[in-house]
Amino acid sequence: MITLALSKGRIFDETLPLLAAAGIEVLEDPEKSRKLILPTNQPHVRVVLVRATDVPTYVEYGGADIGVTGKDVLLEHGGAGLYQPLDLQIAKCHMAVAAPTGFDYARAIRQGSRITVATKYTHIARQFFAEKGVHVDLIKLYGSMELAPLTGMADAIVDLVSTGKTLKANDLVEVEHIMDISSQLVVNQAALKLKTAPIRRIIDAFTQATPAAAA
Ligand code: ATP
Ligand code: MG
What we know:
Elements (H helix, E strand, L loop, with lengths): L1 E5 L3 H12 L15 E3 L5 E5 L5 H6 L5 E5 H7 L4 E6 L5 E8 L4 H6 L4 E5 L2 H11 L3 E5 L6 H4 L5 E6 L3 H5 L2 E10 L1 E6 H6 L1 H14 L1 H4 L1
Parallel strand pairs: 1-3, 1-4, 7-8, 7-9
Antiparallel strand pairs: 2-3, 4-11, 5-11, 6-9, 6-10
The chain binds adenosine-5'-triphosphate and magnesium ion.
The site of adenosine-5'-triphosphate has 16 residues, from helix 1 and helix 3.
Subcellular location: Cytoplasm
Catalytic activity: 1-(5-phospho-beta-D-ribosyl)-ATP + diphosphate = 5-phospho-alpha-D-ribose 1-diphosphate + ATP
EC number: 2.4.2.17
């Protein structure tokens, strides 16, 4: 049995065409079913639905053999014990620093001021500001980071941006592009040794179906 960990929403939706390329069809719609384990047309392949932030953990501990996870989630997790063979070029967005229009971020940085930054992505934020030599106090949040500067709790946020609409709606502007984000295929190292052929088949099919490989 090969178990693939996916999260509902954009990652599930954008992984479906890759699975199709591997001849795998998920037999139930996660938006309609309450099941957490979904069968596929291949009796030896199943999908487990987990929270996006839990995908690397399931694969690390063998709850799943392979998984699809955002680079953001992977960097926060640390990637320990995970083989990362492929950038799937799906669920693309970028990580950015954003601040209220009224906050002169560039000036604060120039002056070496200490700034307060709210984020769900504390590892990425800490590393980014450390490399820039900026002193930050990080506030860990789990949702709606845009609210933190609006309430005066933080000077800026570190968050994922795709269209920029959410930032705009909350009078925030992007002041730093930290990194491009896309989703990665992650594989449990022990599973790869024990089930090499079926896992390789999936990696190869995904590679073929990924834009970078086609170019
Ligand atoms: P939850 O909604 O359960 O708190 P989540 O926000 O991490 O979890 P999703 O919204 O499904 O889950 O996002 C999954 C992944 O999709 C992210 O980790 C990121 O890599 C990618 N992604 C692409 N665009 C965006 C975006 N605009 N906002 C958030 N995530 C995005
Ligand atoms: Mg979300």
